[in-house]
Amino acid sequence: MNATKRILITGASGMLGSTLYKQWQSKYQIYCTGTSKALPNMKNYMQFNLRASNFKELFDWAQPDVIVHCAALTNGNFCQENPEEAFLINGLSSYKLAQSASKNCRIIYISTDAVFSADLHMAKENDIPNPDNIYGKSKELGEFLLIQNSQNYTIVRTTIVGFNEKEGKAGFVEWIIHSAKNKIPIQLFDDVLFNPISCSLLGNELSTIIDSGGFKNEIVHLSGSEVVSKFEFGTRLLSELNIQNETVAKGSILQFNQRAKRSTDQSLDCSYFQTATKRNLPNLEECIRSLSKEYYE
Ligand SMILES: NC(=O)c1ccc[n+]([C@@H]2O[C@H](COP(=O)([O-])OP(=O)(O)OC[C@H]3O[C@@H](n4cnc5c(N)ncnc54)[C@H](OP(=O)(O)O)[C@@H]3O)[C@@H](O)[C@H]2O)c1
């Protein structure tokens, strides 16, 4: 039905972008971009650095109806040490996309729970952002510049978990699985809360926004429906995958020295999305089942 809709995915070599590509390639006309080489089997890919001052080449090529802006510097410590780079890529890129896009082109900016401070439990869309670190501040800037410069945007704040396609890249889920399989002792925080959604389940929900055109010029929270600790998430994941978890221990963020301050409460209230769309967002079991399916695939 939407095969003619042209979708530009920025950050297509990343965890979320590559999942969306796989999931959507038969549904939409997908155009992908990132700074590294195209992933194996990824068609319609243009290497493009969002540092560029002129995005004409990218827009002439993709001519998007929708941009799903996933690209970001997501390493909190790197952002903390390189604030200018973080503000340029995570913040200013949304201004440049808004300036280059046609009036009818919807820009969906993938944002994060990190725009809120740890003081908030179940942050709502109208709560005031107050990021604890540079990464969160740079994403808040991206939101702000989009709101100021686009008349056709949706800001989706989420907390994603998933797998990386890019060789040599490993995130939270891969780290837990690799450590447990190789009997490497790790600690998972029992005092950090989040309501995760797998990248592919987020893809389903983003697709309903694209198809319906809903949430125009709005911020919407879109994540899992169940709040859990990182420890609970990790042990439930390993149990689903039948991987022994004896080397996984409970840890506390208070005993962990990090360069970038991290929030102890990443929970997002997603009731607005559920009420508006009459869709139930996935709970922890559904999130873990979706990760398990991807793992075995
Ligand atoms: N992962 C999480 O826990 C989490 C939680 C909440 C929200 N989010 C948000 O979700 C989105 C996707 O996250 P993710 O985990 O999929 O990120 P990721 O795996 O780290 O991927 C980041 C992507 O951004 C691209 N990128 C980085 N710098 C770029 C530049 N200068 N020019 C062009 N592309 C650039 C990377 O391309 P190359 O590798 O090719 O350079 C890569 O494709 C991000 O916006 C993030 O803020 C993530």
Helix content: 25-40%
SS-based class? alpha/beta
Determine the mean pLDDT: 95
Morphology call: globular
**CATH architectural type of the domain at 6-164 and 196-223 and 267-283:** 3-Layer(aba) Sandwich
- N/C terminus separation: 27 Å
| Sheet with most strands | 7 strands, parallel
By DSSP, the count of extended strands is 13
- Uncertain residue segments: none
Within CATH, the superfamily of the domain at 6-164 and 196-223 and 267-283 carries the name NAD(P)-binding Rossmann-like Domain
Radius of gyration: 18 Å
CATH domain fold name of the domain at 6-164 and 196-223 and 267-283: Rossmann fold
| Number of H- or I-type helical stretches | 10
Give me the side-by-side strand order of the main sheet. 3-2-1-4-5-6-11
What is the CATH C-level name of the domain at 6-164 and 196-223 and 267-283? Alpha Beta
Order of helices and strands: EHEEHEHHEHEEHEEEHEEHEHH
| Unique bound compounds | NADP nicotinamide-adenine-dinucleotide phosphate
- Bin the strand percentage: 15-25%
What would a concise description of this structure say?
The chain is of the alpha/beta class. It is built from ten helices and 13 strands.
Structure description:
The chain has ten helices and 13 strands. The protein has helices spanning 15-24, 56-62, 76-81, 83-100, 134-149, 172-181, 199-212, 230-240, 271-277, 284-296, and strands at residues 6-10, 29-34, 45-47, 66-69, 106-112, 153-158, 160-161, 186-189, 193-194, 197-198, 218-221, 228-229, 248-251. Helix 1 packs across helix 7, helix 4 (83-100) packs parallel to helix 5 (134-149) and helix 8 (230-240) crosses helix 10. It starts with 5 loop residues before the first strand and ends with a helix. It has a domain at 6-164 and 196-223 and 267-283: Rossmann fold (3-Layer(aba) Sandwich). It is α/β, with parallel strands linked by helices. 38% of the residues lie in helices and 17% in strands. The mean pLDDT is 95. The strands form four sheets. It has a seven-stranded parallel β-sheet with strand order 3-2-1-4-5-6-11, sandwiched between helices. It has a two-stranded parallel sheet with strand order 7-10. The chain has a two-stranded parallel sheet with strand order 8-13. The structure holds NADP nicotinamide-adenine-dinucleotide phosphate. The site of NADP nicotinamide-adenine-dinucleotide phosphate (NAP) has 25 residues, from helix 1 and strand 5.
